[in-house]
Amino acid sequence: MISKKSPTYLSLFSGCGGFDLGFEKSGFRGLGAFDNWNDAVNVFQKNLRSACHIVDLATASITSREFGKPDVVITGSPCQGFSTLGKRCSTDPRNSLLQQGAKIAVRLKPQVIVVENVCGALSLQMRRHWDEAVKIFEQAGYYTITHRLTCSDFGVPQIRRRAFLIASRKTHPEKLRFEQKTKLTLRESMLRLDGLSNHEPVYLRKHSKAYMISAQIKQHQKLCNVRGGARAVPTWHIPEVFGKTTSQERKLLESIRRLRRQIRIRDFGDADPLTLNDIKQECGPGTKKLLEGLIKKNYVRQIGQRYDLTHTFNGKYRRLSNSHPSPAVDTRFGSPQYYLHPEENRGFSVREAARIQGFPDDFTFYGSIPSQFRLVGNAVPPPVSQSIATAIVENLL
Asked: Which of 145, 166, 292, 346 is least enclosed, having the fewest CB within 10 Å?
C-alpha cells in the first residue's frame, strides 16, 4: 500500500491511465487525474487508485487548493495533430493543448513536470508548440531537458518512440538516467493468453477477400505495390483476389513501380505518375496495349495523360514477426487490414495489444472494442513511465 508520505503526482490528459500506472508502481500517490473522454475515465477509475475527473482541460482551472500541491505533474496531451500516422495538421486545435498542459502544470508549482507526446511534435513544422512549453517552464524557473525514448529499451516489445520533456525546479535533469530492461520479441509477449480478459480473437472468414489476402502474407511482409523486395507482396501476386495477369503485364507493373519513384515531377511525396513515353522507353513496343488491359483489370489508372498504379498505399495487411518487436501499437491495431497476427489469419485482440503496450494482465479495458483499441493505442506504455518515475524519485525529489 502507498504511504501518505509517498511522493505525489497529478495527471493531465490521463487517458486510461498508462502514464499514471507507471507512477503508481514507482510508489507515487495520485492526487487526481483529468480527461474529457468518458470511456477513458471509466477505465482509469476501475484500474488505478487515484480519482479521475471528466474535465475539458482546454478551459478548466485546476488548483492546488482543491487537489493539493503535487510533487510531480504529468501531462500527455493529444498527439493526433503531430503524429505521422495521422493527418499531421499544423493547424489542429488540439496541438495547442501541449502548451495548455504546461500552463496548468506551472500554476500547480510542482518540483517536476513531465510532458509526453509523439516525436512528430519535435519536427520542424510542429516544433513551436514544444518550444513554447519549454519557454513556459524556463520562465517559471525550471530547468528543462528533452528525451527521445524508444520503448523497446524498457521491456516493451514494440518499436515505439516518444518524446518526453522533463522540467525540474531544484536540480537540472541533464544527468537523469532511466533504467533499461531486456528487449522482448513479439513471441515472448504473446504467451499464455487463454482465459484472460479482453482476449477475444476474431478470425477472418474463410474464402473472404481479407482471408485470401492474409493467406499470402508471410511474417514480416505486407501487401504493398509501391516497394519491391522480399517484404512487399504486390497485388498482382494474389490473382485469386485482384485478378490474373500475364508475365508481360507483371513485368510492366514492376517497371511502373520502379520508374514512378525515379522520374519525378514534384518536389514532395515519394513518387509520381508516368507519361506513356516514360514507360515505353523502358518496356518497348506494345506498352500502350498492355496499359489499356491493365486499366480494365484495375491494376493501372490513368490520370490525365499520365499513368500510375491503382493501389499505391505503402502497406496493408502487415503480418508481424514473432522474432521482432512490434511496430508502434496504434488505434487500428485490431483491424487485420492493417495488422495481422504472426501465425493466425486475424488481427490482434485488445489483450494482445495491451501486452505489447506493457499493460499487466489485471488491467481491464471496458467500452466498445474500437474504444478499447483507441484507449490502448493512445496510452503511454507503463514500463516506460515507471522507469521515468523511478529516476525522478532517485534524482530530482
From this structure: 292
